[in-house]
Design goal:
- α5 packs antiparallel against α7 and α8 crosses α9.
- The C terminus is likely disordered.
- This protein has a five-stranded mixed β-sheet.
- The relative contact order is 0.12.
- Helices cover about 50% and strands about 15% of the residues.
- It is α+β, with helices and mostly antiparallel strands.
- The structure holds adenosine-5'-triphosphate and magnesium ion.
- The site of adenosine-5'-triphosphate has 22 residues, from α9 and α11.
- The site of magnesium ion has 5 residues, from α9.
- It is found in: Endoplasmic reticulum membrane; Mitochondrion matrix.
- This is Protein-serine/threonine kinase.
- Keywords: ATP-binding, Endoplasmic reticulum, Kinase, Mitochondrion, Nucleotide-binding, Transferase.
- GO terms for molecular function: ATP binding; pyruvate dehydrogenase (acetyl-transferring) kinase activity.
Length: about 375
Amino acid sequence: MAAKKACEFLSKTMMEEVRRWGSMKQTGVSLRYMMEFGSKPTDRNLLISAQFLHKELPIRIARRALELENLPYGLSEKPAILKVRDWYLDSFRDLRSFPEIKDTSDEREFTKMIKAIKVRHNNVVPTMALGVQQLKKEMDPSMYEDLVEIHQFLDRFYMSRIGIRMLIGQHVELHNPNPPPQCVGCINTKMSPVEVAQNASEDARAICLREYGSSPYFTIYGDPNFTFPYVPAHLHLMVFELVKNSLRAVQERYMDSDKVVPPIKIIVADGIEDVAIKVSDEGGGIPRSGLPKIFTYLYSTAKNPLNEHSDLGTADTVTMAGYGFGLPISRLYARYFGGDLQIISMEGYGEWILVLRCFVIFSCFNQFVYVSRLDSVSVSTLHRH
Ligand SMILES: Nc1ncnc2c1ncn2[C@@H]1O[C@H](COP(=O)(O)OP(=O)(O)OP(=O)(O)O)[C@@H](O)[C@H]1O
Ligand SMILES: [Mg+2]
């Protein structure tokens, strides 16, 4: 009894602490600052960075934990969401119980701890998806479109997650004794989008082969020598998701046919402000009326790979499709640095349309990612989430 009381008291004081930190103002970090600061990872700079994160991360994490407590339609009470909330509370506790960072040895310990926090949160996306699915099961499908608040929350939540992971990833990566050439933390100052697109498309193809036993091919057009500063992991994720979608659409359409399977086309166009990447396929597209749905977190036409008993701690959560999260999450990654993701679908096959005044496209499903050139002045102040 006494133990239960002590536990309740502890969690009450902790929640007060979470509320106090959650009401503090978070500080944005500009990308330019990150690149300049990270290019000289001296012990002194690492110490300053750790001291900043020690104050900043609990604010950001507390805000998310509070939001997870107050979701509409009873989403907060779903077991998967409670699990995610507990991860946030555990991380908050770890950060707040870490003493003041005074020297290099403290800084190294702190770095180990935030690295572990990043790992703890690895499965947040599929676990949240499971929570949303738990809610969805209880609802009438006609209500899905009313869930604007939930979509807005998820957009904010994931955007903030991208920011937190970027801050931790950048700090941790600055300790790498042998950083890849031209890299400042997670930012590659000379990233080749063609090379990243190649790797991401191969990874997507491997999943398709694993799932279906065969896979359409892809072709990449673009200058492999063109480079610009960007976070390769972000671009990889976006292209991977888009190509995965395209492979699935084409595979499903041609699986039982004798026709020649048309390859996925990936075009990398290097503009002055943006780099545009177009992924197009001839998988049949979707009707225009379906387009608003595909950016919602509840919508997928694939069988959901998750169930109540999924062990997300150990399970391989990469599947061909089914979470309904691929497109909205990829759009957040694109927007994070000021880019965007747009889709133009042509149901059926064989029409010409003119897009962006400069592209003439012949295909059914066109997915565009615009990634901001991080060397263009207009984006130097971005990354404030
Ligand atoms: N290239 C495409 N051709 C036709 N339909 C597509 C294409 N890309 C996406 N869609 C439709 O949009 C839906 C949502 O796509 P999204 O990537 O967000 O989720 P998913 O692929 O179902 O699951 P996952 O979260 O695992 O990616 C898909 O289920 C599919 O119906
Ligand atoms: Mg997908």
